[in-house]
Amino acid sequence: MPLDPERTDGELLAAVVDGDGAAIDRSIPILRARLGFVFPGVRVSRAGNEIVVTARNANADTRARILALIGTTPRLAFNDWEANVIAPNGKTVAGQLQNQDPTATEISQGVPASRRGRLVRAV
Which domains does the chain have, with CATH numbers? Predict the structure, then answer.
């Protein structure tokens, strides 16, 4: 069954997956996690060699967004934002952390030094 964002029966799509049964089985919990995080209530199941995504009462925009998520590879990126943030004194936060500037530290860590907790070993 092809991908179909226009279905009105509550079943968003059924994607034919090229691969063995084990690959399909591995894909289902990944899709559940990805879709369930953004669209609570979306169900992902298996029907033969198809992965069926059910989105009840989803409008066309929601269905299109789900299809877009399914069709992309997730990417995790790290950004050194401190190198681009300017502190009130006009200098970058990253450039002031080595000198332990209190304002730069507060911007970086989000909590003033006087209010930071300490690490306590859990028993």
Answer: 11-70 (3.30.70), 81-110 (no CATH)
